Amino acid sequence: MGLMKVFSGTEILAVSLKSKIEAIGVETVLRDNNQSNVFPSMVSAKAVELFIQETDFSKVNPIIEEFRMSI
Fold first, then answer.
1. How far apart are CA 1 and CA 18, in angstroms?
2. Considering only CA atoms, which of 2, 3, 19, 22 is closest in space to residue 11?
């Protein structure tokens, strides 16, 4: 199985959801596509993406839905 994107948005929200998911023992991958390290003069508002293993989706889905309803 592979990784599945479960959230795309601001870094603050992604980190918040990440901590909720990891609290139940599911590992996450946080991907920040910010290119400001490569081009310091560019200001980018690209979304941060949060991924989990596809096999963990059934455990994580209630947490994701509750999080989405709260934002």
1. 20
2. 19
> What residues have CB less than 8 Å from 17, skipping those under 6 apart?
6, 7, 50, 63, 64, 67
SS3 call for 52: strand
Q: What are the distances in angstroms from CA 66 to CA 7, 46, 55, 70, 71?
A: 13, 24, 20, 6, 9
> H helices then E strands: how many in the chain?
2, 3
Q: Tens digits of per-residue pLDDT, 7-53?
A: 999 999 999 999 999 999 999 999 987 655 555 555 556 789 999 99
**Going by DSSP bridges, is the β-strand pair 3-9/29-32 parallel, antiparallel, or unpaired?**
unpaired
